[in-house]
Design goal:
The protein contains eight helices and two strands, in the order ααααααααββ. It is mainly alpha-helical. The chain has a two-stranded parallel sheet.
Length: 187
Amino acid sequence: MNRRNLLKGMGAIALYGSFPGVLAEFASSCKSKTKTLRADFFSDDEYQLLEQVTDIMLPKTTTPGALETQVPYFLDLVVKNCLSPDDQKLIKKGLQELNGEARGKFSSLSKKEKKSLVDKIDMAAYKNDADKAWFMIIKKLSLIGYFTSQEGMTKALNYVKVPGNYEACIPYKQGEKAMAKTFLMYW
């Protein structure tokens, strides 16, 4: 038996055991051809609102955006399975308040108005406004969901699959993507 393959296999098993089940389910869901994946924590209106907000935070450009990488589904899974009931209530209340700030219906706003409102909430959340703390949770989880997805890891970042050769210093050229390494396997 090849020692390198044995070590790779043992490392993958050990690492996989340390990941929460939510992340594993999310990683496998990225292969799904179904457009709408749901964990059914959020109501239909809340989920659509979540889709719109994540699309504003991580829009599709030359790389896939939040919707293409199933970030709303990741949020649905994490909020349902990993957050405390208090945090769950905080997020649901925040989504309702977002609709309230949009005079009843966030989805009826223009794209520019939506972005302006999300930016305003983002600024308030990071100025320690307790009423906007829900947005910090959503934003952090969205980034985690995006950059742990196959598309986020391999297309938005300069992906190097591990295990690989050790390189002590990798030169950076102005304008390159940030480096990303992962033990997650996509096949």
